Amino acid sequence: MNMIETRNLTKTYGDFTAVSHLNMHIQKRRVYGFLGPNGAGKSTTMKMFLGLTRPTEGQFYIDGKTYPKDRMSILKEIGSFIESPAFYGNLTGEENLEIIQKLLGLPKGSVSDALELVGLGPFRKRLAKKYSLGMKQRLGLAGALIGHPPILLLDEPTNGLDPAGIHEIRTLIRSLPRQYDCTVLVSSHLLPEVELMADDIGILNHGRLLFEGTLDDLKASARNAGFPTDNLEDTFLAMIDADNQRGGR
Ligand SMILES: Nc1ncnc2c1ncn2[C@@H]1O[C@H](COP(=O)(O)OP(=O)(O)OP(=O)(O)O)[C@@H](O)[C@H]1O
């Protein structure tokens, strides 16, 4: 079953097309890696799912609901982390999460659970403005996860983390479908990262979906198209390069 499905989803800004006729299929209880170079349109797509920017053309369906008709009930199902999340710098990490907990009407214990889940337990009493970049990313993730939403949209969640932090967050994301019955859409511009986290991937370039399927499907389709397949990152770069040579849009 598809938890998120788009049909010809398109977003233009003036005469610039940021997202073009996207047909994505994000299956329930899977991690979908949304891969593409800077400016490919990943954030714009996620912002449309959250109702933060309006599609110019096309539709999307989330858990059987239609945008814009069911916008509010769609939003209730999504936890998100889009671009650097904003916090109250003069409040502690814990206090920041308490605000979300109250807004969502969650039990008090959910704050500690979320802090532990992302490894911020020991830093709960520190002011958010004193957090390192990696700690801020973790706090953003905790904010997205706190209500155990059935759908998580995570835009480059490992940005700014050190290798140990990346490993930890990746392991956490991998475990979410099993642990919380969650469907995860996670964007990245790094194939090795997606390779370690995702069940399915979608490759976006200049707003167009170049590929969608499992990693094995990607290898097979790259082999058929004559791209290198020993190293999937080379495959990805060669696909992007070939698309750019063709004009890219
Ligand atoms: N409000 C806007 N007005 C005009 N152009 C925009 C606007 N928002 C995004 N764009 C353009 O749309 C394109 C896609 O941007 P988007 O942020 O979705 O890409 P991305 O794949 O998330 O890239 P990154 O990895 O750099 O975040 C970019 O060329 C960007 O400059």
From TrEMBL:
Residues 4-231 form the ABC transporter domain. PROSITE patterns: ABC_TRANSPORTER_1, ABC_TRANSPORTER_2. GO terms for molecular function: ATP binding; ATP hydrolysis activity. It holds the Pfam family ABC_tran. Keywords: ATP-binding, Nucleotide-binding, Transport. Gene3D superfamilies: P-loop containing nucleotide triphosphate hydrolases. PANTHER family: ABC TRANSPORTER, ATP-BINDING PROTEIN. Belongs to the ABC transporter superfamily. This is ABC-2 type transport system ATP-binding protein. It comes from Catenibacillus scindens.
